[in-house]
Amino acid sequence: MTYRMTFRGAEIPAEPGQSVGAALVAAGILDWRTTRKEGRPRGLFCGIGVCYDCLITVDGARAERACLIPAADGMRLGDALETGDGPDTGDAPGDDDRDGAAQHAEEDGDDAAHP
Questions:
Q1: Per-residue pLDDT averaged across 34-43, rounded?
Q2: Cβ–Cβ under 8 Å, residues 74 and 68
Q3: Which of 12, 22, 94, 101 sees the fewest Cβ atoms within 10 Å?
Q4: How many structural domains are present in the chain?
């Protein structure tokens, strides 16, 4: 059975056992939020819940990690910090406007901001 989710008005298929993030990437959607300061795209990066780049709203629950949430039939997906008044994509913990690879390379050390 293929699940059907909705993201920005589009129907997204998902297979049982797939995460929300994996289903979005499989559908060709590589980013679903932006950084606050410079509007840089963010989506799936680490895929294991450590980096917080994949934050998304799932059925009204804000700032969920798309890589950890199992896909389910009928899910409504939105921008990371979306409210009823429209998207507010916000930043994830540790987000800034450095190049993503450089930022994550620096965070591989003893950065207390990440679990």
A1: 94
A2: no
A3: 101
A4: 1
